[in-house]
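Tokens for chain A. Residues wanted.
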């Protein structure tokens, strides 16, 4: 709309509409007089997707945001911005936002039951919450749970608030359906996942993931496009022909069978005489370590070091000795103990997983598996090198990645670990062209006392405790990622769980465990059982409708934010290699009677007496070191600590973090940072590759997963000591995943009754923002675009399969799993595996007061199972591809 005044009038009318706003006395804030006639361009930072990395320019006219665009000067997006970032303007002016604090007056709760909200002042709301939380803390601070998610990552005080309060219950609602971190934390000592080096990669195999296009971040999509243009081949192993597959080769596969395909790849490489990188296996992994019959390393009696066999000297030596050669196979008697190299044990296990065996499970033709394995090793260019910044690296321009759809099943972590074996056989781990951790760059490959890369992050098991201290039983899943579903079950069925306390209060902030998790009605019932629920909310979504108090959060455009650029998503290339970057968002004036979340936590902490002094929020924040980016990230370093006896603004906290940043050698403060919106430094190019810090045999990646076996053995002993079992789970199968060598493992869907003759999958699309930073399906700009996509929000089915079932385009059908059912329209297509149907995005649900757009479409997660027996034991990731049946709505079943 060109007429600016008309545009402003339109926005005012929409946001003052009583029927839409849901309140009787809300008034739009008048623009301050100093804003009239003023044009501003503010530096922004998009947080609408998981990458959350694109820097923006926010154009403000007369106090009204009229345009958002990418910042052409700022890395990593250099002016690019996807539809989600552009549509943040509509998230800001969303008439369905929560606009003032409200308290429930109707004790009955449900997604379509009017809460009969009562408008209150901020002081009234905060006083009320503080009094309820005070009672909880006096009884047992563990009675408070704080549920967080990707929707609000602009807060510095959420975790310090929980710790100062005394609760261990920070419940993670992001990632239960994509818990794909353990293998990278173990093999690379990095987090969250491993990614491809698109600067040099020639051959990229991707399983159950998108290399960039689905996410549609400006950076990831551009890197992907540039790699394809450069000539990189992509092979997409996926039940559907994705955007990635459209630019390369599509290999259809059944959901939950990626493990079988990967085991077969390893079998081909090892047993069919492909020339894998024996130098890497011998010198950069623990594959040569001698293993005794109990599965543990054979150790030198004098030094306690693991040993390897030198076939030339015909003797065992400690791993750090000089070797003329190193044995990978064979059997050796040492001091009366029969030992074998770990590689020999892996080789023996892999022998049975032939491509023909895998074809019967995953449907990938045996010839295709052999060809991909052969092409992978051939393109690895084993033996080649490259000089970067005066340092000679191995060059291995191939990469295999597996993520969400490949690992979100029981046995899924074993699939990810098997993928690591494929990469290690190519010698491509942490070297140019290969598979890199997307954690920070630097000396992270630190060897432990056994010479093996020290596990980090989620590969470091939590200490066992009984009864469990956390409501999500994290102590029983020591490497689990995000298990809000266990918290849900423990609240619903306390008699099945051994906790010695109950959840008395729940603060929901940035996460939506009802909409974004399995079996939504179970979470609704769980919320009903919690005596007091607070939602720090953007809109009246599902969690807010189960709350007793709703506090309106600033939308992202209204939040001051200073952040270190977190690890890159999906891939890297020279645009970001070695970058150290701090980004800033200047907030626009708040549109409604909202408050920044950190101000909310500060106000509550002051009322509760946990803001100041030893153990208070500021003390916690002073000592809180971000474990993922501690080497380069923003922490309160020495000389910049907060005064723990004085109140600090959010700006003061950010100023101290930035001023003390190790790369801020110019001595900038936020005043200088505001002039550019970012500060970027580049490490020397050679330091981008972690091989540089520990080259040759200075460290070894785990090829034989002894650390995982140790974790399982300790957990099993502790659980036996206290006679602990997991509700409804088979304990033999539970511990079967804690293995040194991957094996084939069926997930919960393989033995479904025959009537469930299809599988269903779900995938990310470019149209979804995080629920608490934007309106998701309710954003009208994104909704308009998605409605023009013929494959969006519909049930996609293979054309031949539809014909066999007498279904045609546009039919309304029921899709039913053993756990729930949904309705939707079908779209016939050649882009789906014949035994698989698919549904994109996260549609459906909504509440009585949510945008009607939020209710459109079928809710995929309603088909998924809830229960311990359906999850991956190691990662605690939930099953994401159940068996289903499909029929016309009018058919009687």
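Reply:
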């Amino acid at each position: 709309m060109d007429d600016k005044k008309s545009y402003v009038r339109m926005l005012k009318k929409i946001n003052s509409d009583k029927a839409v706003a849901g309140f009787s006395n809300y008034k739009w804030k008048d623009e301050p007089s100093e804003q009239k006639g003023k044009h501003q361009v503010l530096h922004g930072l998009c947080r609408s997707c998981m990458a959350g990395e694109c820097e923006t320019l926010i154009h403000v006219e007369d106090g009204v945001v009229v345009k958002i665009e990418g910042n052409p000067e700022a890395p990593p997006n250099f002016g690019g911005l996807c539809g989600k970032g552009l549509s943040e303007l509509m998230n800001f002016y969303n008439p369905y936002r929560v606009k003032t604090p409200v308290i429930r007056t109707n004790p009955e709760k449900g997604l379509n039951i009017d809460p009969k909200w009562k408008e209150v002042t901020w002081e009234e709301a905060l006083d009320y919450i503080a009094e309820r939380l005070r009672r909880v803390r006096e009884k047992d601070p563990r009675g408070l749970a704080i549920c967080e998610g990707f929707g609000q990552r602009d807060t510095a005080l959420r975790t310090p608030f929980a710790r100062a309060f005394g609760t261990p219950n920070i419940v993670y609602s992001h990632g239960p359906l994509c818990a794909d971190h353990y293998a990278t934390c173990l093999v690379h000592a990095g987090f969250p996942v491993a990614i491809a080096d698109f600067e040099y990669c020639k051959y990229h195999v991707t399983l159950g993931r998108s290399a960039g296009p689905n996410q549609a971040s400006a950076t990831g999509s551009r890197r992907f496009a540039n790699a394809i243009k450069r000539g990189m081949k992509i092979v997409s192993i996926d039940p559907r022909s994705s955007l990635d597959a459209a630019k390369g080769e599509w290999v259809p596969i059944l959901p939950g069978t990626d493990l079988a395909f990967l085991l077969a790849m390893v079998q081909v490489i090892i047993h069919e005489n492909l020339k894998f990188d024996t130098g890497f296996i011998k010198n950069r992994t623990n594959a040569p370590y001698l293993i005794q019959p109990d599965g543990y390393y054979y150790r030198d009696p004098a030094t306690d070091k693991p040993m390897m066999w030198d076939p030339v000297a015909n003797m065992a030596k400690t791993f750090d000795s000089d070797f003329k050669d190193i044995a990978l196979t064979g059997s050796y008697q040492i001091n009366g103990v029969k030992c074998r190299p770990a590689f020999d044990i892996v080789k023996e296990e892999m022998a049975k997983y032939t491509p023909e065996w895998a074809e019967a499970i995953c449907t990938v033709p045996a010839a295709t598996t052999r060809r991909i394995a052969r092409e992978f090793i051939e393109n690895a260019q084993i033996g080649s090198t490259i000089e970067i910044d005066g340092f000679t690296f191995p060059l291995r321009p191939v990469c295999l990645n597996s993520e969400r759809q490949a690992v979100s099943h029981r046995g899924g972590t074993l699939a990810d670990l098997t993928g690591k074996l494929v990469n290690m056989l190519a010698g491509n781990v942490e070297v140019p062209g290969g598979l890199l951790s997307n954690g920070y760059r630097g000396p992270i490959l630190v060897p432990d006392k056994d010479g093996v890369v020290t596990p980090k992050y989620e590969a470091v098991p939590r200490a066992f405790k009984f009864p469990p201290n956390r409501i999500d039983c994290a102590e029983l899943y020591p490497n689990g990622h995000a298990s809000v579903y266990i918290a849900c079950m423990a609240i619903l069925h306390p008699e099945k769980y051994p906790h010695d306390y109950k959840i008395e209060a729940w603060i929901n902030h940035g996460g939506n465990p009802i909409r974004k998790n399995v079996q939504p009605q179970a979470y609704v019932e769980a919320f009903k059982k919690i005596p007091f629920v607070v939602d720090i909310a953007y809109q009246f979504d599902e969690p807010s409708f189960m709350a007793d108090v709703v506090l309106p959060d600033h939308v992202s455009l209204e939040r001051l934010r200073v952040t270190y650029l977190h690890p890159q998503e999906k891939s890297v290339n020279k645009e970001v290699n070695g970058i150290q970057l701090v980004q800033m968002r200047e907030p626009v004036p708040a549109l409604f009677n909202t408050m920044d979340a950190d101000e909310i936590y500060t106000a509550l902490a002051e009322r509760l007496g946990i803001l100041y002094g030893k153990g208070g929020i500021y003390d916690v924040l002073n000592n809180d070191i971000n474990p993922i980016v501690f080497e380069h990230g923003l922490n309160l370093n020495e000389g910049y600590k907060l005064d723990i006896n004085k109140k600090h603004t959010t700006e003061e906290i950010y100023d101290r973090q930035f001023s003390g940043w190790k790369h801020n050698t110019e001595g900038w403060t936020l005043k200088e940072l505001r002039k550019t919106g970012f500060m970027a430094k580049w490490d020397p190019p050679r330091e981008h590759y972690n091989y540089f810090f520990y080259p040759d045999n200075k460290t070894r990646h785990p090829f034989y997963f002894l650390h995982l076996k140790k974790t399982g053995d300790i957990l099993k002993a502790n659980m036996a000591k206290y006679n602990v079992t997991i509700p409804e789970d088979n304990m033999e199968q539970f511990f079967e995943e804690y293995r040194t060598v991957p094996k084939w493992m069926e997930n919960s869907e393989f033995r479904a009754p025959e009537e469930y003759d299809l599988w269903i999958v779900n995938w990310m699309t470019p149209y979804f923002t995080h629920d608490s930073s934007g309106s998701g399906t309710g954003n009208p700009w994104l909704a308009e675009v998605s409605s023009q996509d013929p494959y969006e929000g519909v049930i996609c089915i293979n054309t031949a399969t539809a014909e066999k079932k007498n279904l045609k385009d546009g039919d309304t059908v029921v899709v039913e799993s053993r756990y729930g059912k949904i309705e939707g329209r079908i779209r016939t297509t050649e882009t789906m595996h014949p035994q698989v149907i698919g549904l994109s995005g996260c549609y459906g649900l909504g509440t009585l007061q949510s945008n009607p757009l939020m209710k459109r479409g079928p809710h995929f997660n309603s088909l998924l199972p809830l229960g311990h027996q359906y999850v991956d034991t190691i990662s605690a990731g939930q099953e994401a591809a159940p068996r289903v049946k499909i029929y016309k709505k009018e058919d009687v079943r």
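The longest strand covers residues 821-829. Confidence is low (pLDDT under 50) at residues 1-5, 7-31.
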